[in-house]
Design brief:
Layout lengths: L1 H39 L7 E2 L8 E2 L7 H7 L3 E12 L3 H5 L4 E14 L5 E4 L1 H4 L4 E5 L5 E10 L4 E6 L21 E6 L7 E12 L11 E4 L11 E4 L4 E8 L10 E5 H14 L5 E2 L2 E5 L2 H7 L7 E6 L4 H5 L6 E5 L2 E2 L3 H8 L7 E8 L2 E8 L1 E2 L4 E4 L4 E4 L15 E6 L2 H4 L7 E5 L2 E2 L3 H9 L7 E6 L5 E6 L1
Antiparallel strand pairs: 1-2, 3-4, 3-6, 4-5, 5-8, 6-7, 7-8, 9-10, 9-12, 10-11, 11-14, 12-13, 13-14, 15-22, 16-17, 17-18, 18-19, 18-20, 20-21, 23-24, 24-25, 25-26, 26-27, 26-28, 28-29
């Protein structure tokens, strides 16, 4: 019995030794290899690096501080209220005669950005359009009367001014070309009449054209910062507190914020404001080409070897593009070092320049790259047909308006319809359309083409005696 027990014990000991040896030889060695692989794996910390340098400080997104930018900007964003005078008839007779007691009523409200310490304010044109009175309220609740200095309806920018009793806080312009997709931004404004509201988001896209099929090529900054009715004309600022955009529009089926909002880039707004202050109107420079964003038809038609850029369909005679040597079929890839991927990139940059500015255009001609210096020329149209009225208008000759003691207006060059030819209209001045002063044929074109097809047109006509009369065309 004892011998049998010793035999079993010996077998058990030998089995344990064999098992331990097998573990050491096969299993434990594999585990060491696995651990060694893990130790050599490159890992990336889950945090956000601020800045682009190798020595940039890392911080979590939650630790980014917006308070400095908010403190710098909130006192320079104002509440703009638009007032109009209406009549309230007390009886049927007053109603028929357009009579009754006058009342001053608020017609709309938005935001504005103080850009100089002496009271110049940039806002959207649609915020102040048609106003008889403007009132600006600062963040400290002080209110001032404002006057319109100038407007750019095509870009939806307006410049107004107040006369304050002290120097005002203002927001300096930043470089919107340097703004990057994914960069943090703040929207500052007065949505729903709630003053001094700050929301945060990122730049979602740049050079965004909301309607690629209309004649007005836009180049908006898109952001997901919450922008609602009343934010129009307010500031889009970076984390340094610099103005990089003027909040303008939202895309929404409900009329309120749903994740998409758009701002006029600060470089474009600044150029418009500088033009209004210096020249009284906007000086638009053009390259002198027609074309568009590269698409499959263009690739086939012009044998283009790239998928991004702006193809040149034609070059205008006597234009800067013609003199620089641009040709049909060229692809514009870059302007002044700025990549051009679509037509809105091109127009957005060119609209920040003036006539006679020289830009360096890098083009791809088949397989050859060229850099051509292009001198921008002034965009002007000399005549325009107001079809619904039946007249052609032209810009007034030098000194012509002074004969009528006017500083604005366009001249009727000829009548287009047999009905209008009976009235001998040649030489008369159209001073306003729908209550808006017109200073050039271009402004007439913008007003008319922004109207609904069946909308009435009201023309203010100044006759040869200097008398002003209004006519409504249906």
């Amino acid at each position: 019995m004892m011998k049998r027990f010793l035999g079993v014990l010996l077998v058990a000991i030998l089995a344990g030794v064999i098992t331990l040896g097998a573990y050491k030889l096969f299993i434990q060695s594999d585990a060491v290899v696995i651990q060694d692989r893990i130790s050599r794996t490159d890992t990336i910390p889950v945090n956000y690096a601020i800045g682009n340098s190798k020595n940039a400080t890392s911080a979590s997104i939650a630790s980014i501080d917006f308070t400095l930018a908010a403190e710098k900007t909130v006192n320079a964003v104002v509440h703009v209220k638009q007032y109009g005078v209406t009549r309230t008839p007390r009886n049927l007779m007053e109603f028929l005669r357009n009579g009754g007691a006058q009342e001053r009523r608020i017609q709309g409200a938005g935001s504005g950005v103080i850009i100089t310490e002496d009271g110049y304010i940039v806002t959207n044109n649609h915020v102040i359009d048609g106003a008889t009175d403007l009132e600006v309220t600062l963040n400290n609740n002080k209110s001032y009367k404002a006057k319109v200095v100038g407007t750019a309806p095509q870009s939806d920018i307006a410049l107004i001014k107040i006369e304050a009793d002290k120097k005002l806080s203002y927001i300096p312009f930043g470089d919107s070309n340097s703004a990057k997709i994914g960069e943090w931004v703040l929207a500052v404004g007065n949505p729903f009449n709630l003053t001094s509201t700050v929301t945060a988001g990122i730049i979602s896209a740049k050079s965004r054209d909301l309607n690629e099929y209309d004649n007005n090529v836009q180049s908006f900054i898109q952001t997901d910062a919450a922008i609602n009715p009343g934010n129009s004309g307010g500031a889009l600022v970076n984390t340094k507190g610099e103005l990089i955009g003027i909040n303008t529009a939202i895309t929404s089926q409900t009329g309120s914020y749903v994740g998409y909002a758009f701002a006029v880039p600060s470089n474009n707004a600044k150029k418009i404001i500088d033009d209004i202050i210096e020249f009284g109107d906007v000086q638009r420079g053009i390259i002198g080409i027609t074309g568009g964003t590269i698409n499959p038809k263009a690739i086939e038609a012009y044998d283009i070897s790239t998928s991004q850029g702006v193809f040149v369909a034609s070059v205008a005679e006597n234009s800067g593009a013609k003199k620089a040597g641009l040709k049909e079929g060229d692809v514009i890839k870059e302007i002044d070092g700025l990549p051009i991927k679509k037509f809105a990139d091109l127009t957005g940059y060119v609209n920040s320049k003036r006539p006679d500015d020289i830009i360096k255009v890098r083009v791809l001609r088949k397989t050859k790259e060229l850099v051509l210096p292009v001198k921008l020329t002034k965009y002007e149209i000399q005549n325009y047909n107001i079809s619904d009225v039946g007249v052609e208008v032209v810009n007034p000759p030098n000194g012509y308006l002074k004969k009528f003691d006017l500083d604005h207006g366009v001249v009727i060059n000829k009548a287009l319809s047999s009905r209008m030819k009976r009235y001998n209209l040649e030489g008369l001045i159209i001073s306003e359309i729908d209550g808006k002063k017109v200073k050039s044929v271009l402004e007439v074109k913008e007003i008319i083409e922004n109207k609904y097809p069946d909308e009435d047109i009201t023309i203010s006509l100044v006759d040869r005696n200097g008398d002003k009369r209004e006519f409504v065309f249906q």
